[in-house]
Amino acid sequence: MRYVSRSLGIVGLFILGAVLFSARADVLTWTAAGTGDWFVVDNWTNTTTPESTRIPADGDDAVIANAGATVLLTHSPAVLGSLLISNATLCFSNRDTLLSATNLTVETSGVLTCSGPFTNTAMSNRVNLACDTLFVAAGGAINVNDKGYAGGLAIGGDTWSAGHGPGGYIGAGGSYGGGGLPAISFGARYMTNLYGSATAPLDPGSGGGIYGSVVGKRGGHGSGAICITAVQVVVNGSISAN
User: How many CB atoms lie within 10 A of CB 12?
Assistant: First the structure.
């Protein structure tokens, strides 16, 4: 197994020995332009039996290679034989959404990401994968930079606004899996909130606090989360959660 990552943040990687699915059926190709919902039949073409076009079912091979397309995955699809993504984006929403495939390939200019950033009152999102083989080619990416909890929103006046998320606090950034450092100018009471595990990171990053003198300005957004459960992972592109 080869696993190389140029930029890792909140990423969980689990290597398993079980085969998810071995049967093969039809090849379903994404043919919609722009942004579309995975679960809309009209966005797919069945290249094996065009008269039986449908959304991908268990064992199907799915191809998303329509240049510039963004595919919205709002809940878990069928367990695929394979999925290839190239020159397009697959965007996850809902933390429980799981993409399962025997073979998952992210080719050049293909991107897996999630919706975000989000606030404390909104749904938490992540990229969540289960596959036998994950291959991220050079130029392909799994990228959830700034897709975690939103930074605090300045409200004006002599006021600090905390970032969103369990690590959000006033006057500092969110702290994940380690002790927060005090903001030197303000003393130890501005330490960040400790949360999460440094050895088994599963949660999105929290947003940074912001001083309120410039109304509408935000603190930095937290990183999104990536969970990969796989037998073999090869990354010649990048996995990034900053």
Answer: 16
Q: Are 150 and 117 in contact (CB under 8 A)?
A: yes
Instruction: List Cα–Cα distances, 194 to 8, 116, 153, in angstroms.
Output: 20, 22, 21
Strands (E), the chain: 11-15, 27-30, 35-37, 44-46, 61-64, 70-73, 80-85, 89-92, 99-106, 111-114, 127-136, 141-143, 160-161, 210-211, 226-235, 238-240
Contacts 24+ apart (CB under 8 A), 39-44: 39/74, 39/75, 39/77, 43/71
In angstroms, rounded to a whole number, what is the distance separating the alpha carbons of residues 79 and 102?
8
State both tokens at 103: 């073979």
**pTM score, whole prediction:** 0.85
- pLDDT means per 10 residues, the chain with 242 residues, are 36 50 75 96 96 95 97 98 98 97 98 96 95 98 96 84 85 65 49 73 88 81 95 98 92
The alpha carbon torsion through 224, 230, 232, 234 (nearest 10 deg) reads: -20
Residues linked to residue 72 through DSSP beta bridges, in sequence order: 37, 91
For residue 170, CA distances in Å to 97, 164, 210 come to 32, 10, 7
Show the tokens assigned to 171. Answer: 């006057």
Q: Could you identify the residue written with the tokens 């050895």?
A: 199
Tokens representing 120 are 């404390």
Q: Is the dihedral angle over the CA atoms 176, 167, 206, 98 positive or is it negative? A: positive
